[in-house]
Amino acid sequence: MSNLEQTLSIIKPDAVERNLDEKIKSIFLTHGFKILKEKKIKLEKSDAEKFYKVHETKPFYNDLCEYLSSGPVVVMVLEKEEAVSSNRKLMGATDPKKAEEGTIRKQFGISIDKNSVHGSDSVDNAKIEIDFFFKN
Length: 136
Ligand code: CMP
Description:
7 helices; binds adenosine-3',5'-cyclic-monophosphate
C-alpha cells in the first residue's frame, strides 16, 4: 500500500558553511526523495526559538537556537514513501559519534549541535514544521 509522506529537512549552518548543501541534496535524491520545495534562509534567533519550542525546557535550548540562527540554512520539503522514518534513518543518530556508517550525520556531522541536518520526527510534526517555513 502506498504511504507517500512529506517531511521537513534542514541543512544546518555547519554544513552550509562547508558548502555541503548540494552534496547532501544529491544524497536525498539518490535515496529516492523528491525535493518539492527549497529555500536558503538566515533565521533570526527568535525564529529558531519558535521552531524548536518543543525543546524550550532543555538545557541545550539556548545554544541550539543561537546555533541554528548563526548562519544560512537550507530548508526543504522532501517527499517519498514513508518519508519521515526514511529520512531519519538516512540522517542517523542525533549524535554523529553514535550514527551508523553511511548516514549523513556520520559522514558530515561534527558534534551533537553541529550535526548537519534536521528532520521531522513524526508525520504530525512534519506538517507543523512544513507550515512553519512554507505557509504564506
Ligand atoms: P535536531 O534533530 O535538529 O533536533 C534538536 C537538536 O538539538 C538536535 O538535532 C541536536 O542538534 C540538538 N541537541 C543538542 N544537545 C542535545 C541533546 N543532549 N540531546 C538531543 N539533542 C541535542
